[in-house]
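Q: Give me the 3D complex with adenosine monophosphate.
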Amino acid sequence: MSESLNSVRMRAERQGLHVSGAERLVPFSDVEEVALSMVTRALHHPRGPVTKISLQVDLISAATVQFGQLPDLFNNQVTCWQHGRQLASELLLSCKVAPAAIERTMATLAKGAALNNTSMRGAMLVDAESGVRLEEDHVRGVRASRMDLTDEARTELRALLAANQLDNQHVVEALILAAKVVSAPQVIAELCWSDDPDYVAGYVASQRTGYQRISLLKPSGEERGGRAFFVCCARNQLNSLVEWLEKEPMLINKIGRIHPPKKWRGK
Ligand code: AMP
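A: Here is the predicted complex, encoded as structure tokens.
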């Protein structure tokens, strides 16, 4: 790749509480439009008025960009969020996350994983065996950053998602984020449900399972959401993992398959 890219990042908050964030990796010619759309999005966020919007643009050298691939998407339909969490637990178990680690992490996300029982700005980093939280800052967490789709992959993905009634910003952004996160060999699975009160779906993603969308993972109106990256790695590898997740640019040029909806009725 010869052309440099720009990392464009937005973060919006209301009196110190995280409201919204967005990440793109775009050529210089798109920076203005993308930055404007991020600011517009922050100003009209369903979680209400914001008191601060931070926008950061960094030049990324073309030589440092890695290429990646989206995971396949599986579309699980459940009838209530409790079943959704049961399914999420089963999927995480299949990735070899310990039962106690799953239970503890879900309870933490449900009560709000930041210190004041609100949503974090980034993700929890969780030891997949012990369930211990490893991120240094329990409010900021770890922010996966500097990842995006190529224009061609975005067009292809959106057409495929539209054919499956899934073409929305949440799915597109979550697929991109999950693609980068689960490509780290130390991350054995990711769990996410949104902090947007109107968006009740979530997912479990891993190399093993692909991106398992779950139609309900929280009650409607709930503002506490979050992400957990379950890791299996030595403590001395953590800094380099976080550095890679937050700093190393990844451009995704290959999309995955979108599987048809499948009902899951609970156990
Ligand atoms: P969202 O899917 O945007 O509603 O975000 C849900 C939760 O995921 C947020 O409350 C954050 O805790 C976390 N999160 C959002 N963006 C990121 C990111 N780039 N990296 C890690 N965690 C994130």
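A quick observation: The pocket of adenosine monophosphate is lined by residues 21, 23, 119-120, 122-123, 143-145, 174, 177, 192, 194-196, 225-227 (CB under 6 Å).
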